[in-house]
């Protein structure tokens, strides 16, 4: 232990130095307050014995300075004083002194005081060290939180939140939310929504959000039916999460026109469908178990269907609301929410949240809370701002293929669509071009190569026989050839796709207009004429050329 | 399975869901779907959400359905059409006979 002795009188310093050295301590001395400050900065001093009355800078001031310098560590300063007046001691303590011994010095007492303060200093050092460790740990935890938060933000990033249609409120109990609210617009218009609640709360409940949001967004992009989305989430929750964890969820879709609401509701509190015009209230109760409970084979994808209109509001919330307790630990009667919805003053969501907060005032939040309000309004299909339709980036191209005999039985059109369907600027026309090619191909194959005639399709049975005959004739082809040429010419003023299909079979008369009286006859060529700007037969009907404007 | 169906009994709505290419290859399957509709159907709906191509024989099949169920114009709803499918239905003037969405 290194002890600093501060005293302007040499005799005093020598006495103390000699005694302390004999007790096994290292001692350094200062003959003034100023000097003591220098030494403190140069040496790793463990304890200071400080005289009070010194010329220049007295003990009080020196102590104040020392304490300032050593503010992070506990450096005990013990005053050695002949003064015994209360006032002097008071000032000593106020200056930051930790203790005092009176002159003449009782060496026994001095030693015990040194020991006591050494112990305090050691404890202090330990606490300091642990504090540092803690704050390092805390910083790492914060970094990890930030990283995980980033994951969750990304998972929810694709959400479609149009205030007009969707209002939602989510209040997690801790940093991470075990509740999930996902909204996506479907490519054909309308929205699909998921409001769910994993068992428990916090990070362990929130981890499930990641796979669920991935499944949700990718399936909605494929226009999947909510029952199928529920089925897939059920399967994944079964695989990924431990048995005791499951996912109460309401998955629902509103049609593009906003007139049809389909709901898969499992393990969730009652949801409410309210018509703000007629004031009619429909309670939508869970008719399924939560996701992750049923095995894949037991799973039931049936949905509830409601015809709705622009006055309809669908309100869904998690059990954080329906199981809210007041200060007497009495659970809320959910009729409170029914009243809140009915008597809302223009804002249902706010009204519901207010009744929750009023009821649970003074009670610490015990679960994650989410509420969502869907207004049943039309939601148009998304406008794809797609690079791929930029005609200025497209180049002209053409492809030709000859298909013969047995190959004609294969799905030639699907092959061609696979070749050209993703071409720049053509992508969004893929479906129509697919229809066009199908009509041209069937027309050329049936009437040209196979010599079948449309009027054989008049009745249902005839239609069936027609296709039986078609298959038979396709199997017996010999030397038949169908040629396809597709040419694309980009032009900012209107691009053209020119398709020519020709064959080496019989010539045939082309009917100008289908009769329209029967279900199956002649609609093909009618469709081709309606889709294309030019439809031209040549070579006695053996060659059909059309132009489709893009 | 290219055609499935859903019957939502409370609402009495029978939905026929077509997947992939809607063409003559689905002739029998499609007819079976509407002919096997359960009792109590109040509304027939064709869900086109998973159809990527529709051809003239499918149009014929839809007309045939309307005729054999003896349903009036607009009584059968065709829902969740992609823009491409909708375009073909419009070209064929099907919005006059069906409720197309």
Stretches with pLDDT under 50, minimum 5 residues of chain B:
none
How many runs of DSSP E, i.e. beta strands of chain A?
20
- The CATH superfamily of the largest domain in chain A is PPM-type phosphatase domain
Strand composition percent of chain A = 15-25%
Most extensive interface, residues per chain? A-B, 46 and 40 residues
* Derived structural class of chain B: alpha/beta
Return the average pLDDT of chain B rounded to an integer.
92
Key features of this structure:
heterodimer, A: 550 residues, Rossmann fold, Phosphatase 2c, domain 1, Heat Shock Protein 90, 3 domains, five-stranded parallel sheet, 15 helices, 20 strands, B: alpha/beta, Transcription Regulator spoIIAA, five-stranded mixed sheet, globular
Describe this structure in words.
The complex is a heterodimer of chains A (550) and B (101). Chain A folds into 3 domains: 2-127, 3-Layer(aba) Sandwich (Rossmann fold), CATH 3.40.50; 158-375, 4-Layer Sandwich (Phosphatase 2c, domain 1), CATH 3.60.40; 387-549, Heat Shock Protein 90 (2-Layer Sandwich), CATH 3.30.565. Chain A has 15 helices and 20 strands. Chain A has helices at 10-22, 33-42, 59-69, 86-94, 107-157, 203-206, 209-221, 226-240, 319-322, 335-342, 348-359, 412-420, 430-449, 460-475, 523-531, and strands at residues 2-6, 26-30, 47-51, 77-81, 99-102, 166-171, 179-185, 191-198, 247-254, 260-266, 271-275, 281-284, 304-307, 312-317, 369-375, 397-404, 481-489, 496-503, 534-538, 543-549. In chain A, strands 2-1-3-4-5 form a 5-stranded parallel sheet, sandwiched between helices. In chain A, strands 6-15-14-11-12 form a 5-stranded antiparallel sheet. Chain A has a 5-stranded antiparallel sheet with strand order 7-8-9-10-13, covered by helices on one side. In chain A, helix 7 (209-221) packs antiparallel against helix 8 (226-240) and helix 10 (335-342) runs antiparallel to helix 11 (348-359). Chain A is elongated. Chain B starts with a strand and ends with a strand. Chain B has one domain (3-100): STAS domain (Transcription Regulator spoIIAA, 2-Layer Sandwich), CATH 3.30.750.24. By secondary structure, chain B is an alpha/beta fold. The mean pLDDT of chain B is 92. In chain B, strands 1-2-3-4-5 form a 5-stranded mixed sheet. Chain B contains 3 helices and 5 strands, in the order ββαβαβαβ. In chain B, 47% of the residues are buried. The A-B interface holds A 186-188, 190, 222-225, 227, 255-257, 260, 262, 302-307, 381, 414, 428-432, 434-435, 438-439, 442, 457, 460, 463-464, 467, 519-521, 523-524, 526-527, 530-531 and B 6, 8, 10-11, 13, 17, 21, 23-24, 27-28, 31, 47-50, 52-57, 59-61, 63-64, 67, 79-85, 87-88, 91-92, 101.
């Amino acid at each position: 232990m290194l002890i600093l002795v501060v005293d302007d009188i040499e005799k005093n310093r020598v006495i103390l130095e000699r005694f302390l050295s004999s007790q096994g301590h290292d001692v350094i001395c200062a003959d003034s307050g100023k000097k003591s400050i220098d030494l403190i900065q140069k040496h790793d001093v463990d304890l200071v014995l400080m005289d009070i009355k010194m010329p220049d800078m007295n003990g009080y001031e020196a102590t104040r300075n020392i304490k300032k310098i050593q503010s992070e560590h506990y450096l005990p300063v013990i005053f050695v004083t002949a003064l015994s007046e209360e006032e002097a001691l008071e000032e000593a303590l106020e200056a930051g002194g930790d203790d005092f011994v009176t002159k003449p010095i009782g060496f026994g007492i001095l030693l015990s005081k040194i020991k006591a303060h050494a112990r305090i200093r050691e404890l202090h050092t330990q606490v300091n060290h642990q504090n540092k460790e803690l704050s390092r740990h805390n910083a790492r935890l914060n970094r990890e939180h930030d990283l995980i938060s980033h994951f969750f933000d990304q998972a929810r990033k694709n959400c479609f939140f149009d205030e007009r249609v969707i209002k939602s409120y989510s209040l997690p109990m801790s940093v991470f939310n075990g509740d999930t609210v996902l909204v996506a617009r479907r490519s054909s218009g309308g929205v699909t929504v998921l409001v769910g609640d994993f068992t428990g709360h916090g990070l362990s409940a929130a981890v499930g959000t990641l796979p669920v949001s991935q499944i949700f967004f990718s399936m909605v992009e494929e226009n999947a039916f909510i029952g199928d989305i529920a089925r897939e989430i059920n399967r994944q929750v079964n695989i990924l999460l431990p048995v005791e964890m499951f996912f109460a969820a309401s998955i629902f879709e509103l049609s593009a026109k906003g007139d049809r609401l389909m709901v898969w509701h499992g393990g969730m509190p009652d949801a409410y469908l309210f018509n703000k015009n007629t004031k009619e209230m429909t309670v939508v109760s869970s008719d399924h178990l939560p996701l992750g409970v049923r095995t894949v084979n037991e799973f039931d994808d049936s949905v509830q269907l409601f015809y709705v209109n622009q006055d309809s509001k669908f309100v869904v919330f998690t059990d954080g609301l329906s199981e809210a307790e007041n200060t007497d630990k009495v659970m809320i009667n959910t009729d409170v929410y029914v009243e809140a919805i009915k008597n809302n003053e223009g804002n249902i969501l706010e009204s519901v949240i207010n009744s929750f907060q009023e009821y649970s005032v003074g009670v610490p939040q015990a679960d994650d809370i989410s509420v969502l309000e869907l207004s049943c309004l039309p939601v148009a299909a998304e406008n794809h701002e797609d690079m791929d339709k930029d005609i200025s980036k497209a180049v002209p191209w053409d492809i030709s293929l000859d298909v013969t005999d047995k190959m004609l039985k294969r799905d030639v059109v699907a092959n061609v669509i696979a070749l050209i369907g993703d071409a720049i600027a053509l992508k969004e026309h893929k479906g129509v071009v697919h229809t066009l090619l199908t009509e041209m191909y069937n027309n050329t194959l049936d009437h040209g190569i196979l010599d079948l005639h449309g009027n054989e399709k008049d009745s249902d049975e005839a239609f069936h026989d027609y296709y039986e005959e078609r298959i038979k004739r396709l199997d017996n082809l010999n030397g038949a050839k169908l040629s396809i040429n597709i040419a694309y010419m980009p032009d900012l003023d209107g691009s053209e796709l020119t398709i020519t299909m020709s064959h080496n079979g019989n010539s045939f008369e082309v009917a100008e207009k289908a009769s329209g009286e029967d279900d199956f006859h002649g609609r093909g060529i009618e469709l081709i004429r309606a889709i294309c700007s030019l439809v031209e037969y040549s070579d006695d009907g053996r060659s059909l050329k059309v132009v489709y404007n893009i | 399975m290219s055609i499935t169906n859903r019957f939502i009994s409370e609402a009495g709505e029978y939905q026929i869901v077509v997947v992939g290419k809607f063409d003559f290859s689905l002739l029998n399957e499609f007819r079976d779907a509407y002919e096997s509709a359960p009792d109590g159907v109040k509304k027939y709906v064709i869900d086109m959400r998973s159809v990527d191509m529709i051809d003239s024989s499918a149009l014929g099949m839809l007309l045939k359905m309307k005729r054999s169920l003896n349903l009036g114009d607009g009584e059968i709803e065709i829902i969740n059409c992609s823009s491409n499918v909708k375009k073909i239905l419009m070209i064929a003037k099907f919005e006059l006979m069906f409720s197309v969405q």
